[in-house]
Prior knowledge:
Elements: H1 3-9, H2 15-22, E1 29-31, E2 37-39, E3 50-56, H3 66-79, E4 84-88, H4 93-96, E5 105-106, E6 109-112, H5 114-118, H6 124-144, E7 151-156, E8 160-162, E9 172-174, E10 184-186, E11 188-190, H7 195-202, H8 206-214, E12 217-221, E13 226-228, H9 235-242, E14 249-253, E15 258-261, H10 276-285, E16 288-292, H11 297-312, E17 318-323, H12 325-331, H13 344-364, E18 369-374, H14 381-392, E19 398-401, H15 403-406, H16 412-423, H17 439-451, E20 455-458, H18 460-472, E21 480-483, E22 503-512, E23 517-522, E24 541-542, E25 548-549
Parallel strand pairs: 3-16, 3-17, 4-15, 4-16, 8-11, 17-18, 18-19, 20-22, 21-23
Antiparallel strand pairs: 1-2, 2-14, 5-6, 6-14, 7-12, 9-10, 12-13, 14-15, 22-23, 24-25
Helix pairs in contact: 3-16, 6-7, 6-9, 8-9, 12-13, 13-14
Amino acid sequence: MTDIEIARLCKLQSITKIADKLGVNSDDLDLYGKYKAKVCSKPNPQKNAKLILVTAINPTAAGEGKTTVSIGLADALNIIGAKTCLALREPSLGPVFGIKGGATGGGYSQILPMEDINLHFTGDFHAITSANNLLCALIDNSIFQGNLLNINPDRVVFNRTMDVNDRALRGVAVNHGVKDSAERNEKFNITAACEVMAVLSLASDLNDLKNRLGNILVAYTYDGKPVFARDLQAQESMAILLKDALRPNLVQTIGGTPAFVHCGPFANIAHGCNSVQATKLAMSYAPYTVTEAGFGADLGAEKFLDVKCRMSGLKPNAVVIVATVRALKLNGGADKNNLASEDLDALNKGMCNLLRHVSNIKDVYRLPCIVAINRFTGDTESEIAAIENAVNQLGIQALDCDVWGKGGQGAVALAKKVVKLCASDNGLFRYAYQDTDSVENKIRNIAVKIYGAASVEFSPKALESLKSLSEAVDISKLPVVIAKTQYSFSDDPTLLGAPSGFVLNVRDIEYRGGAGFLVALAGNMLLMPGLPKRPNAVGMTISDDGTIDGLY
């Protein structure tokens, strides 16, 4: 059966029953139909609440199943009596209608209602898009209405956004042919990469949200002074649009595990984590929280640990690194059309990708970790054993699980080990760089320690941006988000496995004052994805009764 067929066969519990499992007061529940709700209570994490981060090897066309494992693990923890809640990201319509598909798991490890979550859900992404574009309208209106802020139209740095993959919007002209208006070049970011998304993800409450919105850098004046959203008095109206989106969404897994699904920044071009509020709210209601970070550990986990944890005070007690036999064989040069056949040679060649991720979590961040082998039906015992043996050489255990076919029951052994791992946390966690490091050294530390690079090369434009930003605002202690390809440790998507000795090319550096970090653009990474030759959108159908087919 397909994921959609499985989801439709599963009987959902009312969201009020799911809330009762957590102990959420009915007064703190804002219902969006029978199976979705927003939770209005303030986070207050339990003193000894355990946080489990699920990450993965670099993604491949074969699929890794990180979200599926996160969901299956949470169900498994509840099966063994460890009360657990999930905290996951919201899907973006870009991948849903593009190449990657939805983000609600698969098989018998899904969050439901799958179709709603993958589409409009509770409207959070629309609210973010609207707030972002309201600010853009206020910028252009200020310029048109006499330009009292002395904004230089050629130095507007805040972009419009849309939650769809549309490469045509990577470069547009606004005010073209509009009388008495300043024509200028503009571009769109996808909503998942816009700063308002990051602001909402990191805001602790409404006041913090408004302060962060006001701190968004939007432009420079003709004499080089920064202009912020607060100068346009935009933060209150933006917050009004975001007031409901600020509250985390509550849904459920097929196994009945409560799941907070809130905010959805991409990990390749943004910081890749669900909201701080959702994570802390899960930890307020359950002794164990399972969360995930986007793409491979070089992207999502690095940003979770170096950005989200740094800003929020959170720290994972255990890390689960997801790998598949198929993906490791692809990293080792196997033919993508022949992954079902046993190929120990390719598997062993591709093992370096997993081992580097494990070493990073274990040695750079000094966190307890375990490898979850997301099992496919074609995997052989010899291939599973090869992964287990390789990981054991690093002093780490690997366990295979079948959460797609068995749900939580397929990860019971993993859940028991994770509970023990949480109890063994030695408190030695450290970041990959320090607040006091220079911006250049923060980027170098990530590139060398996490990616395996020999050095970093900053383009003239990146150095110019760094100089300009340093003169305009204080960036000395800001963390760094590196936007780069998800397919490789390097900035070259064709360098699979675990390349080393390469140069990471940083072409520009952007300031995210509201979010509170810098973005370093590496390689050819763009903040607006494009559609593939045959997008998912082409194969979807909807029947008269509202049934959707082709929605992954």
